[in-house]
Amino acid sequence: MVDAARGLTIAVPKGRLFSEVGELFARAGCPLGVAEEPRRLVWEHEGRRFLLAKPVDIPVYVRYGVADVGIVGKDVLLEAGEDVYELFDLGIGACRLVVAGRKEGRGRTYREVGPQALRVATKYPRVAREFFASRGLYPDVIALSGSIELAPVVGLADLIVDIVATGRTLRENGLEEYETIAPVTARLVANRASLRLKDEAIAALTACLEAALSVRPPDPEG
Ligand code: PRP
Q1: Does residue 19 have its Cβ closer than 6 Å to ligand 1?
Q2: At what angle do helices 199-214 and 18-27 cross, to 10 degrees?
Q3: Which residue range or ranges hold the ATP phosphoribosyltransferase catalytic domain (predicted)?
Q4: Do domains 3-93+185-214 and 95-183 have the same CATH topology?
Q5: Ranges 3-12, 56-65, 90-99, 139-148: which has the least confidence
Q6: What spacing in Å lies between the alpha carbon of 194 and ligand 1's midpoint?
Q7: Looking at domain 95-183, which CATH architecture does it have?
Q8: Model confidence at 113, in pLDDT bands (50, 70, 90)?
Q9: Does ligand 1 come within 6 angstroms of the Cβ of 115?
Q10: Residue ranges of domains in the chain
Q11: Which is the closest atom of ligand 1 to the Cα of 167?
Q12: Whole-angstrom Cα distance, residue 69 to residue 71?
C-alpha cells in the first residue's frame, strides 16, 4: 500500500522529533533512508523526497507547497497560524504548552504575579497573547528564541509560556508550572493544493502511518 505514497515531498523536523519520526515512518513502511539526522537537507529514498527543516519552518514549507506534507508539533501550528491542513495526530513528541513562573509566585493570580505591567517571555507570542487576552489580561509579551526559563530567573519576565516535556528544565531553574494551555503532539499536515492533486498518495501515507500507530512498537526489553 505504501508504494502508492511515492512521489510525495515530505518535510521532516530536525531536532528532538527527528528520531521518533524516523522510527514511525520506518514502521509504516516509508523509511527516511537515513540512520540519523543528516547534514544533507534534501534527499530521496524509495521514490519519496524528504526535506529537513527547523520545526518552526515546517508550516511555511507546506503552506507554499514546497513540501506536500510535513510533520510538526501542535505548538508550532498554534503559533504559526499558517493555512495548512491538519491531517492527523501522530501521537509522538508529547509535551504541553504551559504558563510557568517562579515557585514563590505559584497560587497568586496573574495580576498579583506582576503587580506593574505583567511581563511574559516566550517563543510563542501569539499563543501567549491569545491565552492572556482570554483572561482579560494584556501583558507585555517579550519574544525570545530559546532558553526561555532564563527570563524569570534573572528578572526579565514574571512568567513564561513555553513547552514542558519532562519538567526538568523548570525544576532545575526553580520554576513551576502554573497552568496548562494545551497538550501538544506532532501532527501530519498537508498543503491544500497537494491534498487535491496528490490525494491518493497522501491517503496512502496516512493509512500506513495510522496502521503503524495502531500496532505497539516492539518492546526493546524483549
Ligand atoms: C524546550 C523548552 C524547554 C525544554 C523543556 O527547549 O523550551 O526549555 O525543552 O523540556 P523539559 O521539560 O524536558 O526540561 P528546547 O530544548 O527545545 O530548546 P530551547 O531552549 O532552545 O527552546
Answers
A1: no
A2: 100
A3: 54-209
A4: yes
A5: 3-12
A6: 33
A7: 3-Layer(aba) Sandwich (3.40)
A8: confident
A9: no
A10: 3-93+185-214, 95-183
A11: 12
A12: 7
Atom of ligand 1 nearest to the CA of 147: 20
**Three cell numbers, residue 32:** 527516511
| Closest to 70 (Cα-Cα) out of 205, 215, 211, 214 | 205
What is the separation of C-alpha 181 from the centre of its chain, rounded to a whole number of angstroms? 14
Torsion of CA 96, 99, 103, 105, to 10 degrees: -160
Q: How far apart are the first and last CA of the chain?
A: 29
Q: Which of 208, 192, 217, 178 is nearest to 46 (CA)?
A: 208
Q: Superfamily for 3-93+185-214?
A: Periplasmic binding protein-like II (3.40.190.10)
Q: Residue type at 145?
A: S
